[in-house]
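Appendix B, example 12.
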Amino acid sequence: MSEPTSPAMPYWHVYTDAEGVSRQERFELTDFQFQGVGPGVAPQWNDKMDPSEAGVTFTVLPVGWVGDWHENPKPQWIAILTGRWFVETMDGKRVEMGPGELMFGEDQNTRERDGRKGHLSGTVGDEPCTMIVTGLDVEPTVNRPGRFK
């Protein structure tokens, strides 16, 4: 039996470019290995990130919530569980995300322009947006869009 084809998992990367402007682009995680997570466990696809200290927060954004312009407090993975939200970056790009979508927020070290610094975000629709946020205790990168490709 041959090994199945490696999957790709899409994610949005909110990052800071070389001029200090936040941007966002869609990329894919593609470094999956087909292996078990322990002895005797059937193989599955895993794309392991570099080890780091992390904190997990479960978040519920109420209907109508808007987070004025701000940077992510630290590099963090955000997975949407229910509801919808939007993220608008300093370059004017607005992306809406819903259940099952993934984002890596890494817009630290932006430079204020026209009253904008970091990103603007808020809920979309008539239900709260629930998410799991995994903040990493790592140094943010600058101008490395899609660094997990």
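The first strand starts at residue 9 and ends at 16. Residues 75 and 106 are 5 Å apart (CA to CA).
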